[in-house]
């Protein structure tokens, strides 16, 4: 069983919702729940509140990931996956869900598990402007450069 490595303060903005928790001891993502109900028509997206605000320690980030079961069974994903919750943010965590199914609407019910929150340590970079960069084997090959993709 993994033991917690950091303490994250949470404020339940809706005390009737479950506190985020891990379904299994070795899980990386804690379940986030819907504060409200909504129906997502095919191709529609909706911003769903979670009733949760957190205070992450400096040097950490919360990443909001889609739930694999919702994606596989219903085509529900998080539009900006992973969503970023910065350490300085103190507002309610909200999740932009997207129904990618072409034919079926999807109903989000209050209390449903809609996403996962993964807490990770981050490195902050100091950006140094230079005139040239060192050469590499890849060079300037971009998106899909090893798979025959060509941009128009």
TrEMBL record:
Spans traversing the lipid bilayer: none
Cofactor(s) named in the record: Mg(2+)
GO molecular function, one term: dUTP diphosphatase activity
Superkingdom of this protein's organism: Bacteria
EC top class, as a word: hydrolase
Stretches assigned to the dUTPase-like domain: 18-147
Pathway: Pyrimidine metabolism; dUMP biosynthesis; dUMP from dCTP (dUTP route): step 2/2
Alphabetized UniProt keyword annotations: Hydrolase, Magnesium, Metal-binding, Nucleotide metabolism
Binding residues annotated for substrate, in chain numbering: 67-69, 80, 84-86
PANTHER family: DEOXYURIDINE 5'-TRIPHOSPHATE NUCLEOTIDOHYDROLASE
Similarity comment text for this entry: Belongs to the dUTPase family.
Function: This enzyme is involved in nucleotide metabolism: it produces dUMP, the immediate precursor of thymidine nucleotides and it decreases the intracellular concentration of dUTP so that uracil cannot be incorporated into DNA.
Name of the molecule in the record: Deoxyuridine 5'-triphosphate nucleotidohydrolase
């Amino acid at each position: 069983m993994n033991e917690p490595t950091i303490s994250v303060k949470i404020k339940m903005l809706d005390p009737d919702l479950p506190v985020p928790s891990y379904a299994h001891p070795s899980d990386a993502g804690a379940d986030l729940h819907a504060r409200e109900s909504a129906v997502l028509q095919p191709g529609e997206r909706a911003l769903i509140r979670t009733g949760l605000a957190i205070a992450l320690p400096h040097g950490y980030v919360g990443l909001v990931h889609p739930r694999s079961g919702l994606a596989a069974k219903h085509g529900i994903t998080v539009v900006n996956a992973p969503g970023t919750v910065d350490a300085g943010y103190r507002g309610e965590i909200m999740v932009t869900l997207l129904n990618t199914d072409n034919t079926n609407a999807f109903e989000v019910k209050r209390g449903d598990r809609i996403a996962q929150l993964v807490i990770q340590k981050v490195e902050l970079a100091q950006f140094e402007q230079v005139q040239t960069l060192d050469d590499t084997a890849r060079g300037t090959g971009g998106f899909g450069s090893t798979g025959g993709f060509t941009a128009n």
